[in-house]
Structure formats: structure tokens, C-alpha cells
Amino acid sequence: IAQIRPILSTQTIGFDKINMLRHVRYFKNLDSIKAQMKLRADVLRPKFETVLRLLDERLGGKDVAEWTNPRGGYFICVDLVDGCATRVAQLMKDAGVVITGAGATFPYHKDPRDRNLRLAPSYPPVEELELSATLFCICAEMAAIEKKLGK
What predicted TM-score, i.e. pTM, was given to this entire model? Predict the structure, then answer.
């Protein structure tokens, strides 16, 4: 697989037309696609609401972070105090929760201010998100305090 992967990657230029055909045959029409997207939204909405609620409750007004309130997609983008994103990701990892790496939204994953993290609440169940989002807020506060104390 390792040997043939680079060869195949140059042979499959453009969209995966077989997969596109599968989707057309499965969904059949625009109404079917809209119905499927509504089902996905119904699953994702409470997850995003949970994380956004906890960010508001625990970090709102503390000058520790700012975040997006997305109207679609799979991520909540969080901007922390400058120089804290790598530390927060490490604190989360040390606690057993892996999040998208610091700087993931930047070319070559190099955030010049080391402040941006993406939270992806789409996979875990709401109960796990309660715990992990609470932990994220604690880690964000810890990193901000460390930064302010010069540690």
C-alpha cells in the first residue's frame, strides 16, 4: 500500500466520480438530500449547544478566549490568550482528551500567535462533551493564568 499510494494519488486527479454516483443513486433528489441534512442537524445541534453553553458559562467575560458560534460545519474555532493554544492542547492530552492540534487552521500548522484551536463536537455523545468541554475551559483558564504569571 505504501508503495502504490503515491502512484494512485496522481492517477486520481479530480473528484471521486464513483462515490459521487453512489450518492446520486442513494439520495435520488434534492428533497432526499435536504431530509438527510435535517437529520444530521438534529444530531449535531445539541452537541454544539452543549459546548457553546459551557464556553459561555465558564469562559464568558473572563478575557481568556473568544469563539465562533457556527451556523454549519463541524468545528467551533476558539482563540485563546496569545501563546496558550499549544499548552491547552497538551493539558487536554495529559488529561486523556485529544483535540485538534494547535494551529490546525494555519498553513503548515504554524499559528504565529499560538492561540487558535478547533473544537469538533460532532463525534462524542453529549454526556462526554459535558465533561470534555468543562475540562477544556479549565485548561484554557490554567494556561491563561500561567501565561500571565510568566510560566
Answer: 0.82
